[in-house]
Every structure is written in structure tokens, then in C-alpha cells.
Known about the structure:
By secondary structure, the protein is an alpha/beta fold. Helices cover 50% and strands 7% of the residues. It has three domains: 3-66 and 111-360, no CATH class; 71-107, no CATH class; 384-437.
Amino acid sequence: MPWLIKDKEKQSENLFFVHVPRCGGTSLMKSHDIPNKSMTNCPFYKTIGMKIFFHRYRLLESANFPIVNTGNAILLLIFLYSWMNYSNTMIGKFMMAFTFILFLGLSFVFTAPTIGRLTYVRRSFLILIHDFLFRFMESIEWCTGTNNKGYINHLTAHKLLHYGYIPSDVWYNTSTMAIVRNPYSRMVSIYMYNRFGPMESFEHFVKTWGTTMKHYQERGEMEEWYTPCHCLPQFEYTHFKGKQLVQSIVKQEELKYLKYKEDESKAIAQDSSIKDLPIPVKDALLGMPHDNKRKTSKKWYEYYNQETLNITYELYHHDFAIFGYSPKIDQRPDLVSPVPTEIKPDVDKLMRNSLNVQQERKSLLMLSASMSCGRSSMRGPSMKSAKYASLLSALESLGSDSDEKDNLLDSDEKDDLLDSYQKDDLLDIDEKIEFLDSD
């Protein structure tokens, strides 16, 4: 998600929104008039591109395959006119073929389900937009649109810093925020947006979603080329190396306390995620509409059975721990929690609205900007046991083959380091080896 407030004289009054997909942030984009702002002072071809981007964005929020819309009606009229008047000419045949191909592409090929779940379609789309159409759908200034990095409005904090879209010193002095939600509820929203039409069941979707995010699961791949943004866990948008980069993190379920100013006392009493928000964040969220919510035939918790509950937890278990969500669904006492006891995350306790986050993370911001964002800084939700064994073997061989490396760590420190590999929040193997080789 782009800048919501920019170019204020006092930097802390500016506001950047890290948009975690399927957490309700699109409403903020509309309420802050980002489409028009992003087209101000743009070259003509980029203005056209951004108009198309936001038009498609709205269409795909309303339908998986947007067949019935004004654009397709125009294409149909052109097709019929060419068929009735010029069907025997080369130009008539060309126009009919062109409109038909455009209709198929816009209605079925380059849509949310296909771009998100079919790797070859997503990669073709990234190449088309960035190279063949000369990046005409991007606005780096406002951090929205799309290019070969993916959807710029859905980039993680780490990616934004590493790509240089936001300098670390600007991030340090700016109010930053993100909205997160219950991972079970979010999975239903992901399903509604990415399903292959209403005939695909939630159970089938959840069972195949792990395949869509296999590169992230196995290697922690973060780039859109491998892993679509909707697959990434929420913590990847807000954290780096287990440390919080975003200043204010608000739970979607607690936005109800910001509908009216008088509800603020309830938020304080409940110790909710909107307690003590910085003024720019509070003003942006106060009375925020949620007008892109899709209508469903039942409540989100009614979609689950025990198997889909277990799979969803396995895919996104870091989100439950980091953001303090229960692995149980209170509304479904018939479903058993995927974990017998509460798991404490091996990362910072969530400082959702701490004004000290930026101060404590200044060096981390610089590190985030310099380090590659191709891999997860916590190495994804799972690693196969064979890879664990290989990793540990490599480290053990490093220690035994070199007296100098043995002297770097005492036995207890080496045991702690090796144990860290058995957790999910890992560094890259190359980074660990570099650490062993350093002084």
C-alpha cells in the first residue's frame, strides 16, 4: 500500500501504510484518494497505465473472473460491428481476433486466481508489464501499481527498504502502520479472492494452497517470481529477522473501537491494538470504511473442518504466535486446537503501537535495506528434516576441519547456534557460514 500522507513539513506527520493482502487496507487507499494522487504529474502513458491498474484492481475485488463489465461490453460491440460490416476484410478479421483475445486475456487469463496460482501466468504478467509495456503501471513515488517486483502496494517492509523505494532514514522518521487479522479469517478471504470460481470448495483450495507457496515453505523464497504476495504470512510484511520494522500494527478485529471517538476509552480498557496510536495513524483509521468486503453465504469460521484448520495453522503458525491469535476457533467448539499448548514465538513481543520501535530498530532498518529480500529472514514456516540434517552436518564439518573456527565459539555457544537451526526463524546457511568465518 502506498503513502497515505506525504510531503508534510514534519516527517513524523507523514504516514506510510504497509498493506498486508486481505486485511482490509484497500479501503484506506480509496479514502485517501491514492488513485488520483498517484497520477498527478505523471507522463501521459503512465497516467493511462495507472487508470487501467486501479480499474482492474476494483474489478478483481468484485469477481474472480470479471466477465460482466463496461470494458467487455465495449469489446463485444467492436466485435459485432466488425463481424457485421467487415467480416470479409483483413482489418475486420484482425479486429474480431484482437477483441476476442483481449476479452479472454482480461476475463480469464490475467485475473487474480490465475496470476496468483499459476506460475507461468504470473511470470508472463510480470514480464509483460515491466518489459513490454515499459513499466507503465507503476508509481514509485507513491509506492503503488505493479512492475517486475510484483504488486508494489503489497510489498513487505523489507522489500520496500531493500529496493530503495523508501530510504531507511525516511522510514525511520515516518509514521508507519499495518493492519493484520486472524489467520483463519484471512485464509477465507484469500480463498474468496483466489478461487477458481464458486465451484471450487474451500477444502480443495486450502489443500492446494500449500503447493502454491511451496517455494516459500521449502526455501523461504519471497520474490513474486516464486511466491505470490497473497501466500506470504503476515509477519513477513511487518518484521525482519524477528524484529518489528513497522511502528504501529493494528488488529482488524479491533478497528471497531475507532468507529467513533468515544469508543477510544473502550480500547484503552481492553488493552487493544489501537491503544495509544500515533495521531497520524489514529486519524487515518478513524471511521475507516470497509467497502470492498465480499459477500459470503456463511461466516468465515463455518468454512472450516478439522483438516483445513490444521493445514491453515501449519502454513501460518508464526502469525498466530507473533500477533497473539489463538489457534482455536471459539465459535467452533467441535474443532480441536492444532497445538496442545500455547507456543511462544522466538521473536520480539509484538510492540504494536510503540513509538520506540523506530528508535530501537534504526540499525536494523539499515541492515534490511542492504540485505537481499529474496529469502525470508526467518526462513519460512517449515524446513524438511533432510535439509536440517544437511545444514547441521555442514556446520559440524566447519567446526571440525578448522581449529580457528572451533575457537570462535565455546561448546555451549556452538550448541546454541546449532539448536537455532532446528527452529523456523533461521538465517540463510550462507549467512551462518559468514558468521563463523568472521571475527
